Structure formats: structure tokens, C-alpha cells
Amino acid sequence: MHWVPVAALSDNYIWLVADDEGNAFVVDPGEAAPVEAALKARGWTLRAILLTHHHNDHIGGVFDLVRDHDVEVYAPLDTRIHYKTQIVGEGDSIHLDLPRATFQVLEVPGHTKTHIAYAGEGFLFCGDTLFSVGCGRLFEGTAEQMLAAMDKFSHLPPETLVCCAHEYTAANIRFALSVDPDNGPLRHRRDEVARLREEGKPSVPSRLADELATNPFLRVDSEAIARWTEAHGKEHATRVERFAALRSAKDIFAA
Ligand SMILES: [Zn+2]
After folding, report:
1. Catalytic (active-site) positions
2. CA torsion 24→27→33→38, rounded to 10°?
């Protein structure tokens, strides 16, 4: 499979994936124009659209794409998504004919209450739940729900490409280093991301194995996060309490 993160809006990535014949699907098209341009530049044909959640920066381009292409749209059950879609939920598998691909649907509420993710073919399309070295804001859900999502992701194959929907990595790393300053792989990732961004390249996708080594929101069971939580006044905190403390600290972190 060929893939490209298409930059859109201020800091969104729209994932475009195609087989050798140029049959493509797109994940979370918040805008149509950059998707059309990317398809045209490569000679690809759009065959399907996958949506993770209802926020407009993830679905804003669907109307135009559906009008101009013969595509099936997959989405969670949410009345705020005003398109004709195939509704999918936890335990469902999506079988695309073109490009030939199968994805498992994971329900991962927290950022929104109906957020889903798609895992398969070596990819994880996780919308605004897992970010590189960070996680999404809790707009409609609880820390417990988002931690459950992180746990689901943790069990995917370590070589999985984490395809998140925003370029937040550098700011996430600044927060992560404030929590876990002695983490060698995290420092290495800081340098790598600085270089990529200087060259104008995306910092994503990342490998799940690298997220497990560097992302504090996937590391609530680590010694480092336990120490940080204790230093911030919570002794004997549960893992949900450690996760919630991290998320609250990130909300107010001045990078
Ligand atoms: Zn969102």
C-alpha cells in the first residue's frame, strides 16, 4: 500500500492510502480540495471514505467528495454526521474491495462520545484519540474511557503505523519531557521531530513501538509516570488517576 498524510486546514492530516493500481481510500477528509489535489497529482481514484468522529475538521470535505466520486462512507453512529454512511461499531470488520483491505473497528470514546478508530493492514487510523507522544482532549468523555482506548491501542502489533490527525508532536514532546525528562528514546524523538519539521516534513506516522516507549499517555504503568504523579501530590494513585493527572497537566501546560 502507498500512503500520504495530506496537510489540511491549520494542522490537520488527512490520510490517503492506495494500492498499486491507484485505488484509494481517505480517512477524515476535513477538506475536499487538498484531497482532490493529492489524488490528481498521483492519478489515484477515490473508492471509500472512513470517518472517526463528527468534528468538522474531520468530515467537512465529505459532501464535496461524495458528490464527485462514487464512494462508500463508513462512520460511527452519531446524528451529528449528516451524510449517508455505513454505520460501524466495536467488533465490526470493514472489507474494502478496492483497494483490497480489511480493518477492525474499535470504539474509543473520550475525545467525543462516539469516536471510533480503524486498525488493520499495518495501520491505525486513530483520529483525535492517540497522537504522536500525546493524546486527544477529553471533550465528551472521561479519563477512564480514554485510558481504555490507549489500552486497546497498546495491544496492536508494535510495528503498526500510528496515523493520527494533527501535527501536534513537537508540543506533545515538550510536555512529555517535563513529565519524563530522563527518557532516552523520548529525547531521541525530540531531535528527530525537530529535524523533520525543519525540513518541512510531517512528524507522522510513528510506529506504535516508539509510542509505547515515549508517549506518557501509553506509559501510566511506568516507574517514571508513577514518580511524576507522586511528586504532584498523588500517592498510591490508581492508573486512571495517573492518566487523569497527566491529561489535566497537559491541558494547562504552557509549551
Ligand atoms: Zn476532534
Report:
1. 53, 55, 57-58, 111, 128, 166
2. -40
Q: Is 95 helix (H, G, I), strand (E, B) or coil?
A: strand
Rg (CA), the chain: 18
For residue 124, the cross-strand partners are 119, 162
Task: Report, as ranges of residue numbers, the positions in the chain whose pLDDT lies below 70.
Answer: 255
Query: What is the C-alpha to C-alpha distance for residues 157 and 159, in angstroms, rounded to an integer?
Result: 6
Q: How far apart, in whole angstroms, are the C-alpha atoms of residue 24 and residue 1?
A: 9
Ligand 1 centroid to Cα of residue 52, in Å, is 9
Ligand 1 centroid distance, CA of 40 (Å): 27
**Ligand 1 centroid vs 138 CA: distance in angstroms?**
10
pLDDT one-digit tens code per residue, 61-83? 999 999 999 999 999 999 999 98
What values do phi and psi take at 206, rounded to 5?
A: -115, 165
Structure-block grid coordinates of residue 27:
480517512
